[in-house]
Amino acid sequence: MTSETSGDRKALVVRGGWEGHQPVVITELFLPFLRARGFTVRTSGTLDVYADAGLLAATDLVVQCWSMGEITEEQSAGLAAAVRAGTGLAGWHGGIVDSFRGDVGYQLLTGGQFLMHPPGFSDHTVTPTEEQSDHPVIAGLGPFEVHTEKYWMLTDPLIDVLATTEFAADEDRARPVTMPAVWTRTWGAGRVFVSAIGHKPDDFDVPEVRTLTERGLLWASR
């Protein structure tokens, strides 16, 4: 575990799991942003931090980038309890919605679970929702194009969907589907931010993706 420049708020970046999502490389993109916004940034390559109640209680924001893997009952309960008490949780892509597939409690916390994506990367449109157009994460943003994986997910009805993608009807699906791509939710006193975008570092070269992700981190923080 490492610590970085001191600030008034504390962020804990938990990164690991499947290396295909480049958890260290991509989270490093956001450490300067967090430090510039006054966070002390601590990074962890182990989930054991989720069992440290004192550490989590003193943490304003957990940024998780941990794809697949397994979480213990103690770790999962510790994270959920911390968010319920006010610690924010934020993440993107498989680092937050393809984590700990066997843990239902974790999926209830995040509000969604990845199921599949069409082969390879595709050009597709991400459309902010009109209903949430004044939400601070997407305010002022219009539809934008990305070239990356498009996630099909199961989602909780108690999420606030900020942006969506479209899946056309095909041989398996009888009608087109509008799929949540970015959402927020509350869990007790805590806030959770999730974006499906972020398989590879250059996904964040799209200005709208970078903007909504940075805003999401700040929104989720205590």
SSE arrangement:
Layout: E1 2-3, E2 9-17, H1 23-28, H2 31-36, E3 39-44, H3 53-57, E4 61-67, H4 73-84, E5 88-92, H5 94-97, H6 104-110, E6 112-116, E7 122-128, E8 144-148, E9 152-155, E10 160-167, E11 177-187, E12 190-195, H7 207-220
Parallel strand pairs: 2-3, 2-4, 4-5, 5-12
Antiparallel strand pairs: 1-3, 6-9, 7-8, 7-10, 10-11, 11-12
Summarize this entry quickly.
The chain has 222 residues and is α/β, with parallel strands linked by helices. The protein is 24% helix and 34% strand.
What does it look like?
- With 222 residues, the chain is an alpha/beta fold.
- 24% of the residues lie in helices and 34% in strands.
- The chain has helices at 23-28, 31-36, 53-57, 73-84, 94-97, 104-110, 207-220, and strands at 2-3, 9-17, 39-44, 61-67, 88-92, 112-116, 122-128, 144-148, 152-155, 160-167, 177-187, 190-195.
- The strands form two sheets. Strands 1-3-2-4-5-12-11-10-7-8 form a ten-stranded mixed β-sheet, with helices on both faces. It has a two-stranded antiparallel sheet with strand order 6-9.
- The chain is globular, with a radius of gyration of 16 Å.
- The mean pLDDT is 96.
Biggest sheet architecture: 10 strands, mixed
Helix tally equals 7
- Rg, rounded, reads 16 Å
Summing up helix and strand content along with how strands pair, one would put the structural category as alpha/beta
Provide the succession of SSEs: EEHHEHEHEHHEEEEEEEH
Mean pLDDT: 96
Distance between the termini: 22 Å
Number of strands: 12
As a percent range, the share of strand residues is: 25-35%
